[in-house]
Amino acid sequence: MCRVQSLAAAMLLASAGLPGPAGALPEVPPPLELPPRLDLDRALALVRERGLDLLVAEAAVHGAEGDLAAAGAIPNPTLGLGYGRSFLTGRCTNEVGAEVACPSYPPAYSASLSDGGAVFDSLTGKRGLRTRVAREALAAARLSRDDALRSLAAQVEQRFVEAVLGTQSLQFAREVAAAQARTVELTQARYDAGAISEADLARVQTARLEADQAVDRAQADLRTARVALAFLLGVRGPVPDFEVVPGELGRSTAPARLAAETRESLIARALQSRPDVLAARRQTERARAAVDLARRLRFPDVTLSASYAQEGNTPTAVTPPTWSVGVSVPLPIFYRQRGEIEKAEADRLTQSLTVAKAEGTAVSDVESAWAAYEASRALVQRMEKGGLLERSRTAFDLVTIQYRKGAASLLDLLDAQRTWIATRLEYLQDMAGYWQAIFRLEQATGASLR
């Protein structure tokens, strides 16, 4: 009995000292204070540290790590201990029928130890298959985390471009408003001199008010873009006014990595490195391992056991010291895992179709992003190298000089001004579309192209 108690105590102490899951779970990030000047690299670094979608995906990875640890665990043995006493009821008599005192029996002890099916679980390969399923699921979870970062970074890049566009649009709107103010002063002087009519003066004043309206709209658009960007970066309180630094986004030079790529190479890169495609493939491997596991579960779980019992240790003992071993086997007669196998096969088919869909989506995304990139690049080049932007500004400046000298009419001035404003705003939109197309290509391929 002392040996049995010592064994039980040792097992309890061993289980109490088992290490817990490795790694620390992600925590909800503290409030963020945005810097007064923010560039794109800093914004992407913040979202990697504080993006809530990314932290959710990280928690899912920790859950998959726990599943892997559970799948590879060896079943704990089962220890049973028993203690009892035997009592007689009624009268006790001797061999001649005389009543005598009833004898007393020694205490009864029993102990049993079962392996919980651990031996045959490993011999039949079930534990290995469970580990394989969990390992593939963990790999898919890690790739899903990478895919969450890919999507979140793309959102930040798009919102950052919108904030840059808002800043540039506001600057241009103020430039237009200042130019309109000068035109009003010039027109007012000509009106006072009797050179133009009141209708012409009203037209110029209306244009000035429209320019002021454009400034207010640009300020509202910039504020909206800043709020959207701050939300993605993890700001949960009032959003301060901060300045976005355009950096390379103010230039139309193609990134060096992208300049060396073609549509076909980008499609191949997407199929090789895009996280959602790779995650779908790992899920397919997980499903195949799950099919093998479901089929392997047809083998019954054989449980080995050993037991010891005694009630007394003399030749006349009720139960002399007795050792025994046993085997417990469930008989797979009525059910042989048919439902689990069919379910696993259906999951394998579903994951295979998901891979095909993910690959098709990746190709479609690259095709669309490449078409947008080529179109936006052509628009920007026409604006810059084709001279459209410069010529519209030159025309406005020349007509302004002619108007001051009386060689051009007010309608000519207003028409040249509208053309210049429309061309400049179109250029800002084209530049934003150009960089958004580049970021869409990065999102579509799952790789950095800058």
Uncertain ranges: 1-22
Secondary-structure class: alpha+beta
The CATH topology of the largest domain:
Outer membrane efflux proteins (OEP)
Helix count equals: 12
Q: What is the helical fraction, as a range of percent?
A: 55-70%
What would you report as the Rg, rounded to the nearest angstrom?
40 Å
What shape does the CA trace take? elongated
Within the largest sheet, what's the order of strands?
2-5-7-8
Q: Structurally, how many domains make up the residues?
A: 2
Largest sheet: 4 strands, antiparallel
Strand content: 5-15%
List the helices and strands and how they pair.
Elements (H helix, E strand, L loop, with lengths): L1 H15 L20 E2 L1 H11 L1 H20 L6 E7 L7 E2 L5 E2 L7 E7 L3 H6 L2 H67 L5 H36 L9 E2 L11 H4 L3 H11 L1 H22 L6 E9 L7 E10 L9 H47 L3 H17 L5 H36 L5
Parallel strand pairs: 1-6
Antiparallel strand pairs: 2-5, 3-4, 5-7, 7-8
Helix pairs in contact: 2-5, 3-5, 5-6, 5-9, 5-12, 8-10, 9-10, 10-12, 11-12
